[in-house]
Write a structure and sequence with these properties.
about 190 residues; alpha+beta; about 30% helix; about 15% strand; Knr4/Smi1-like_sf; Knr4/Smi1-like_dom
Length: about 190
């Protein structure tokens, strides 16, 4: 997974998966992407960066179930009580975490939950019922996609043992386009 340079084959596969043929009209353009990055003190990982600049900024078709939200947007079911988002602060997790099974007291868990939902990620979209797909933009897992729900957080990619998919945004989209279940590892 290369988060610094876009692989032309990955970008072609992503473009084909979303089946967007509007000549880039639904894309943000490089100036808008760079302004977003400057405002938030980040650089988006590739190939997502090129995707929103040149292909589209969100789509009703495609992953997740309710579509891909725009770069500066949150899903309709996000809610108001999640706290302030800071994309420049690192995403706190590096491995699967089920906080419902964590024996620590809630006073220790709550700050991590707040960071997990609000730091270092853009929200790609929702599968409904509080199940969100995040792309990590800051931290040790930069470029990885995470599935975060009300019960836990799971990294996406074959190296984590829950799926056969390649890691990152390209792997996530290609897995969806192949019509495979998200968590298909035996």
């Amino acid at each position: 997974m290369n988060t610094e340079h876009v692989d032309p084959d990955d970008l072609a596969a992503i473009r084909a998966a979303f089946d967007i043929d509007d000549g880039g009209e639904s894309a943000l353009g490089w100036e808008a992407v760079q302004a977003f990055e400057a405002e938030h003190g980040i650089v988006l990982p590739e190939p997502y960066r090129t995707f929103v600049a040149e292909v589209t900024d969100g789509s009703h078709s495609g992953p997740p179930d309710y579509g891909l939200v725009g770069l500066a947007e949150l899903p309709d079911d996000w809610g108001d009580g999640r706290g302030d988002r800071d994309l420049s602060r690192p995403f706190p997790l590096t491995s699967n975490w089920l906080w419902d099974e964590d024996p620590r007291p809630s006073e220790e868990i709550e700050p991590i939950l707040d960071q997990m939902f609000n730091h270092g990620t853009i929200v790609l979209g929702t599968d409904g019922c509080g199940m969100y797909w995040h792309l990590v933009v800051t931290g040790a897992h930069r470029g990885h996609v995470w599935f975060i729900t009300g019960e836990g957080a799971t990294p996406f990619g074959s190296g984590f043992g829950f799926t056969t998919a390649e890691p990152g945004f390209a792997g996530w989209v290609k897995h969806w386009a192949a019509n495979k279940p998200w968590f298909d590892a035996a």
